[in-house]
Input
Amino acid sequence: MTAESLAFFFLAAFAVSTAILMVLQRNPVMSAICMIGTFFSLAGLYLLLHAQLLAVLQVVIYTGAIMVLVLFVIMLLNLGDEARLRERYDLAMGVGTVLAAGFVVELFFILFYSGDPALRASMDPRAAALGTVEGMGGALFGRFVLPFEMTSVLLLVAVVGAVVLAKRKG
Amino acid sequence: MEIPLSYYLLLGAILFAIGVVGTLTRRNAIVIFMCIELMLNSVNLSLIAFSAFLGEITGMVTVFFVMAVAAAEAAVGLAIVIALYRNKPTVNVDEINILKW
Output
């Protein structure tokens, strides 16, 4: 057990357990806090994959911006009393859970019994230079400059749309 | 022992399945929204894993764009929840069924 694999199993276990807790929690505030745990452990996993810039962006965008927005809306709407919101426990829920479990089992067999050597190869030595700010910046402002600029248009549309939707009528 | 690619992909599959279960079973619109974010994140993990193991940056750049789309989706999605709540004070998706049929 190297430190790397130990870190992987710890982060993976933390990510899966907080994700399950998020689905099971009745209180949406607790769900959001569990989700923040998942996002942090995913940021750690990105670091193990040498994606430093994306790990930082994961923390800044997901836990810093998106989850704060979600918590803000939960508290703005005052959704504390979940007793009113009756959750459905019926056939659809059972079928959905069984299908999702089947999906995981299927992928497990594909990943571990396919015998594809690419799945057991070790990490590419070039990976260390890919995820740095330099590597990502070179790609974003080189080959991918048009989609990168289009992102700003997308964000502008989203800002205008959010303001129009959430604005009071009148 | 070095972690092979398949472990990262299996973790991504498990997180995706948890997100699917949450989306299908929960009735709270905001929790459904968070489960969709979880599914986006699990795919991000798979993309970064492929990118690192193949030594090719396209996967990481795609994750960057997915993050931008997720941020836009968060702003618009939560604005829709607020607009719905103003019409009818509930976030239960079983009660917001006026567009259903």
Summary: Chain A has two domains: 3-123, 132-170. Chain A touches chain B through 88 residues (CB under 8 Å). Residues 132-170 of chain A form one domain.
